[in-house]
């Protein structure tokens, strides 16, 4: 190892490397290294740690700024409600407009609230006033609409125990307010609901097919069942011949087709054809005499 090299673990650092020299000039102001000077090496270590801390703070600030911009964009596009906006957006134009609108809405609501209170406590002399007549008509319409709405009544049992009514002489403590169950009343939760239904109940409720219906839907020929149970290829081919029939090859089919064509040609009657005239010999013409009729 030369005098200008330092080994950190398995990494060999050379002070003569261009990147290391530029780093030294940035931290210490000079690229001259004195390895034997303890004070110089301590100052170098302090400068390295300070530079690392500064870079770390810069990265953290950059990430915080990026996160703030992301939150602002989510607020502006409506993904985050304005009520949950960060305090850094207090001076944003959108937030200022929102605050102004909320102020106007609160003022209008306060006026309406005062107006409603005045109408409720209005003197009887104002019964025929147009405003009071309109208010009475609106209240009448609201009552009619509410009367048409059918709210489902929820039956809340007044039994404090999930089990049957406990027996007082048995020494059990009964809570105050418990209503004893009558003989004709059932428990809050019927035990039959927790039991698994039988096959007969499933078939009656049409949740399950009976064995006969299932057999009709999934019918299979006995030969097909035997074919599935075959273990050798010979047995499979034998059953296949019984199911489908003996398959004929292409050559056998061609032979049968040619035989059928030949039989059809023999069975067809011959048409009457004119007698063939022999060809004339070369260099001599033959005169054909007419055949006398009898």
Span between termini: 144 Å
Number of DSSP helical runs: 10
Largest sheet: 2 strands, antiparallel
Strand content: under 5%
H/E series: EEHHHHHHHHHH
Can you count the beta strands? 2
Structural class: mainly alpha
Region (Disordered): 266-294
Any overview of this molecule?
- This protein has 294 residues and is mainly α.
- Among the domains are: 5-84; 90-148.
- 51% of the residues lie in helices and 3% in strands.
- α8 packs antiparallel against α9.
- The chain is flat.
Question: Mind sketching the topology for me?
Answer:
Blueprint: E1 5-8, E2 11-14, H1 18-28, H2 38-76, H3 93-120, H4 130-148, H5 191-194, H6 199-204, H7 211-217, H8 222-228, H9 233-244, H10 250-267
Antiparallel strand pairs: 1-2
Question: In short, what is this structure?
Answer:
The chain is mainly α. Helix content is 51%, strand content 3%.
Q: Can you tag this structure with a few keywords?
A:
294 residues; flat; two-stranded antiparallel ribbon; 51% helix; mainly alpha
């Amino acid at each position: 190892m030369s005098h200008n090299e330092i080994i950190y673990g398995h990494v060999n650092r050379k002070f003569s490397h261009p990147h290391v020299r530029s780093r030294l000039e940035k931290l210490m102001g000079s690229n001259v290294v004195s390895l034997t000077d303890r004070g110089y090496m301590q100052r170098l270590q302090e400068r390295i740690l300070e530079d690392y801390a500064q870079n770390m703070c810069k990265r953290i600030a950059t990430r915080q700024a990026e996160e703030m911009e992301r939150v602002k964009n989510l607020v502006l596009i409506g993904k985050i409600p304005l009520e949950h906006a960060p305090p850094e957006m207090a001076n944003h134009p959108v937030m200022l407009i929102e605050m102004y609108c909320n102020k106007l809405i609160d003022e209008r609501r306060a006026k309406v609230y005062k107006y409603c209170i005045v109408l409720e406590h209005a003197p009887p002399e104002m019964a025929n006033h147009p405003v009071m007549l309109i208010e009475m008509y609106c209240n009448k319409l609201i009552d009619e609409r509410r009367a048409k709405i059918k709210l489902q009544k929820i039956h809340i049992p007044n039994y404090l125990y999930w089990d049957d009514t406990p027996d007082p002489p048995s020494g059990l403590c009964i809570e105050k307010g418990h209503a004893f169950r009558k003989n004709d009343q059932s428990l809050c939760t019927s035990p039959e609901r927790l039991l698994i239904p039988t096959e007969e109940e499933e078939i009656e409720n049409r949740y399950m097919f009976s064995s006969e219906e299932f057999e009709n839907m999934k019918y299979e020929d006995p030969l097909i069942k035997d074919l599935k149970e075959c273990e050798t290829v010979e047995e499979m081919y034998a059953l296949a011949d019984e199911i489908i029939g003996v398959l004929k090859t292409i050559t056998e089919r061609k032979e049968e087709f040619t035989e059928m064509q030949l039989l059809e040609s023999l069975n067809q009657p011959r048409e009457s054809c004119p007698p063939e005239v022999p060809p004339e010999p070369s260099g001599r013409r033959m005169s054909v005499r007419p055949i006398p009729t009898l």
